Automatic annotation (TrEMBL):
One of its GO terms (cellular component) is voltage-gated sodium channel complex. One of its GO terms (molecular function) is voltage-gated sodium channel activity. Its main location: membrane. This is Ion transporter. Coiled coil: none annotated. Pfam families: Ion_trans. It is found in: Membrane. It comes from Lentzea aerocolonigenes (Lechevalieria aerocolonigenes). The chain crosses the membrane at residues 16-33, 53-74, 80-100, 121-145, 194-218.
């Protein structure tokens, strides 16, 4: 087995990946601790050392993967994501690039690339984007139509939340999220007792229907992603024989090398 193949086995092993996950978690904790002036004053040197050590481990891991897989490394989008995160961390945090210092916490996002279950969730979200875009367009149209109707119905009540199309759209967006819609409705019912009809109709369509459709699209994409995950296959008799043959070959090579 060549050195490149051995390094590839190491970086793909479960133990190595768990070690990197632990480093990511520790680094994320230290970056959060650096936001506390009291902790920085007491343990600033230690936090800085841990941060630099974590970055060194990430760079070494990335270099090992690049050496093991070569240009194939960049065929996986998650590997490209890891490469960009580590590359940004290596940029100098001084001068015009000082804003990048606050971007170090992006290293914590490497957990998404390291944990398969998180990767599946993100992949499902990406696959649901086309459906979400269509629903967003439909919700925007509903919001605009409701805004025009509400402006005509409640514009003369003197309520600043309905004084024009802009404030009305903002108010309807607030109502769509379910935030304080009953207070807005009761304030309008002082001037127009039948205002509750509009609010109930809008809530039924905008909140209960549209927002649930958003959730349904995401859940459908996640279910589809889970169905594409291959189930773990139990080792068959042929697999066990193949492992034994490989072990015998390794022993023969070792004997030939010793002779």
């Amino acid at each position: 087995m060549t050195l490149r193949a051995r390094i590839g086995e190491v970086v793909e092993s479960t133990r190595f990946q768990w070690m990197i996950i632990c480093v990511i978690v520790v680094n994320a904790i230290t970056l959060g601790a650096e936001t506390s002036p009291a902790l920085v004053e007491k343990h600033g040197d230690l936090l800085g050392t841990i941060d630099h050590l974590a970055l060194a481990i990430f760079v070494a891991e990335l270099a090992a993967r690049l050496y093991a897989f070569g240009w194939r490394f960049f065929r996986d989008p998650w590997n490209v994501f890891d490469f960009v995160i580590v590359a940004v961390a290596l940029l100098p945090a001084a001068g015009p690039l000082s804003v990048l210092r606050s971007m170090r916490i992006l290293r914590a996002l490497r957990l998404v690339a390291m944990v398969p279950s998180m990767r599946r969730v993100v992949t499902a979200l990406v696959k649901s984007v086309p459906g979400l875009i269509s629903l967003t367009g439909l919700l925007t149209l509903l919001l605009y139509v409701g805004g025009v109707i509400a402006s005509n119905l409640f514009g003369d009540t003197g309520d600043p939340r309905f004084a024009g199309l802009g404030p009305t759209l903002l108010t309807l967006f607030q109502i769509t999220t379910g935030d304080g819609w009953s207070d807005v409705m009761r304030d309008l019912m002082v001037h127009q007792p039948l205002a509750w009809i509009f609010f109930l109709c809008y809530l039924m369509v905008g909140t209960f229907t549209m927002l649930n459709l958003f959730i349904a699209v995401v859940c459908s994409a996640m279910e589809s992603e889970v169905q594409h995950v291959p189930a773990p296959r139990a080792a068959t008799h042929d697999d066990l024989l193949l492992q034994e043959v490989r072990a015998l070959r390794d022993e023969v090579r070792a004997l030939k090398a010793s002779v």
